[in-house]
Amino acid sequence: MLLSTAFFTIVTFTLLEFVAAKSGVRVPTPVPCVVETATFEQQKALNDKFNEQFYVTRDIVGAYSHVAADYINHKPDITDGQLVSFNFVYPLLDASNSNSSDITMEILRTAFEPPYAWVHWRADGFLERPTAIFDIYRWNGTCIVEHWDAIEEVPENPVSSHPVF
């Protein structure tokens, strides 16, 4: 039986606090992005920086500095809010966590057409099989304010001859 993501998020956050308290290491907390107006070029540069931090260097604290506090998340098993999402993602993906070292992430395609940006990426070690993921973000000025995703584990024997990557 799979645990719900909400339960996992609460347990993970509590474990992060516990380990931090025992080791003296501070649990990182991203500073929420404050929405300011931005030109296309500024938004594009911020989006590129977010993609680099999140998907390439896996600096999740840095990436979440581009996310507004009242971030809307369309993921059905977690609630809204920058900190809620961060507490779910950080232990799974941040490069500083030994738990995330078995996960590899590769950006395959991106697009940016304000206010939307999307990333098609491959994750290995996230689920049992290679996984295709689409993330769609909505920007408001300088901040990501909304997110959708679609996650598909590649079957061992796909019926379609078309690759997902």
UniProtKB/TrEMBL annotation:
Protein name (Swiss-Prot/TrEMBL): Snoal-like polyketide cyclase family protein
Signal peptide: 1-21
Keywords noted in UniProt: Signal
Organism: Favolaschia claudopus
